[in-house]
């Protein structure tokens, strides 16, 4: 069996490494439209903020491909799929046969069709999606004083925080009535806007951008125009208006497309059994997953199925947990967060302290957590995530969901109290027990454990927990007996 992978991003590169962990012999070719080694797109905001360099967010060392007999064609784009001949045609003129084709083309930035974007974005305006985009933003930011971020979702907030950290005056322009409306309710959105304001970031809500303003003859962008007639000035404009699945190749090949490539529980296209799809370009049921954890879970399931490591492996959906860990802004959101008092079967617990930038909400149904928001103070995020992910019964003292240690409730955030089965890294599905086992085999630092288990290499939100567990294990080893 020969396998060809189209796409070398977070889903495609993870599938390639998972496959090689199970099978060293099957001919494997991967095409990546970007020239760089695969990198962690979640951490691009860290590069933008100057917390990390581009070389620090890589996922696969280029030398790994040769060592593992993978034909990696970086910077080579697939331009056509011939399903009848079972070949892919690439931009370098090559034609590569396959027995199994894996489509992992991800998403592309959505840029609204507004005046000023007809021939592409003008100089000084950049869509924020790739490492090249990040480099372009930093080039403009080096001489800019003001920036406008169009879009107040997760990516837009991360971009705004990164630019503000570099000393720019930043304005976020958002169409909805509150920030991050997909993950947050209006109360949390209001607290987030107040927190950002203290960090020097202004948020304009219910603001409809109707055009980009630039100088004559292709000059640099000078700001954005709003439906109200106002102009928001900016030497830099970052477009963070969302993404859309990249399904052009799949559609041209005649595969069934809804929002993404429609697949079944084995990630097989419902059109062609020789074609699989994973990550942000795939659709299971009516859901296109836009977070890293589901994409990596799909990669693992597909590697199990194709290699026979677990022929019964299936992807049956995933719970989506959003983590934002920008400087001075911590957020965890999961599940159904928009419930109010209109459902008699739902109980909502809330706590807010806007002056401290804190907002907490837990949504409960049938004694189970079905949604939660923790903004500003996230010490109970591990406990809530466990309860939500496993649909586990709530503790007797529900205030412990907001304030750790209340009522003597043992929380999952303390290493000594955390059961080995507790999931520490949700991006990679790594438990405390796996971390302990890795430590017992000789990995005695957080970096060594991360290299072995991949814990903390996704969104990075569990890095503190990982370091705490490793430090606790070290303490246990050095503690005097008795």
What does this structure look like?
This protein has 4 domains: 3-108 and 244-307, FAD/NAD(P)-binding domain, CATH 3.50.50.60; 125-241, FAD/NAD(P)-binding domain, CATH 3.50.50; 336-403, 2-Layer Sandwich (Enolase-like, domain 1); 414-482, Orthogonal Bundle (Arc Repressor Mutant, subunit A). The chain is globular and about 60 Å long. The N and C termini lie far apart (58 Å). The strands form 8 sheets. It has a 5-stranded parallel β-sheet. A 5-stranded parallel β-sheet has the order 9-16-10-11-12. Helix content is 26%, strand content 26%. It has 482 residues and is an alpha/beta fold. The longest helix has 16 residues, at 292-307. It comes from Actinomadura rudentiformis. Its cofactor is siroheme; FAD; [4Fe-4S] cluster. Residues 424-471 form the BFD-like [2Fe-2S]-binding domain. Residues 2-299 form the FAD/NAD(P)-binding domain. It holds the Pfam family Fer2_BFD.
Topology at a glance:
Elements: E1 3-6, H1 10-22, E2 28-32, H2 44-49, H3 62-67, E3 70-74, E4 78-82, E5 87-90, E6 95-97, E7 100-103, E8 107-109, E9 125-127, H4 131-141, E10 146-150, H5 154-165, E11 169-173, H6 186-198, E12 201-204, E13 209-214, E14 221-226, E15 231-233, E16 236-239, E17 243-245, H7 248-252, E18 261-263, E19 275-277, E20 282-284, H8 292-307, E21 321-326, E22 329-335, E23 346-353, E24 358-365, E25 368-375, H9 381-390, E26 423-425, E27 430-431, H10 432-440, H11 446-453, H12 463-478
Parallel strand pairs: 1-2, 1-7, 2-3, 7-19, 9-16, 10-11, 10-16, 11-12, 18-20
Antiparallel strand pairs: 4-5, 5-6, 8-17, 13-14, 14-15, 21-22, 22-25, 23-24, 24-25, 26-27
Protein name: NAD(P)/FAD-dependent oxidoreductase
Pfam family, one: Fer2_BFD
GO molecular function, one term: metal ion binding
